[in-house]
Here is the input.
Amino acid sequence: MIELEGLTKRYGEKTAVNNLSFAVRPGIVTGFLGPNGAGKSTTMRMILGLDHPTSGDVRIDGRHYDELKDPLTYIGALLEAKGVHGGRSAYNHLLCLAQSNGIPKKRVAEVLDTVGLTAVARKKAKGFSLGMGQRLGIAAALLGDPRILMFDEPVNGLDPEGIHWIRNLMKSLAAQGRTVFVSSHLMSEMALTADHLVVIGQGRLLADTSMADFIARNSRSYVRIRTPQREQLLDALNQAGLTVVEAGGGVLEVDGGKPEQVGELAARHQIVLHELSPQQASLEEAFMQLTAESVEYHAHADPVSEAPPPQQWGNGWNTPNKGA
Here is the structure.
């Protein structure tokens, strides 16, 4: 388990992490989300003792990172996949880590096989692609067979097969009772992987809840309906006290209702339905809704690249000068 209590980090007048308190529990995949500049990387670095907190505390299974003997056997982490000596082979990079942490030599070959790098084990890391570097970083995190795994953007540079593999790997590790903490900006992938979410913005905790509860609390859920008997259905829904929104194109949206409730109501009134489907926001939409006021870096359209508005001639508008 990873436990943070009042964790704060300041750089001069800038507060990168502000009084963070939460726990990352074993047996589930916990996603760590936040806009750019929210303090995710700084938090992960403090967990690993790479940055020291201004105040507060962070513990790994009840101890500080610098109190762990052979730390790779307690917690494995992927923070910067390219943090490897380019002149070393993948095998020798892992062997150095193993020897400095009391890990058996045979474990090197095992993790290389796990991440699919056996064929290039003796090649120098400087020739690795981004995806291969990610796999090597994941191998290093797995090397000590730790009970706690922490990954920062683990799918970066991976192809579809690699993304599928790392997703299943993280789920498998959690199913074994390990603590899995993963940060990513790829919302579609996080939605398929994480069971629980910790969301921060401008260094502060915004949410610490299950994936399902997070989406439900930060998005609109409704039932989408299409029917040729629109007026009859509107009357029936209003009489039942349900809130209806007319979305255009003959579509009705019922807020706060369940598909079963709406379907049974239509059946009682002998109303034909062409569509009856529950709709819920994606994780990305819920995340955008929650963090809208916490985004530090906003992109804007480039005014130079925007095309000028079209001109309309005649009917009182500017008329071209025919003598030009």
In short: The first helix runs from residue 40 to 47. The CA atoms of residues 176 and 218 lie 31 Å apart. DSSP finds ten helices and 13 strands in the chain.
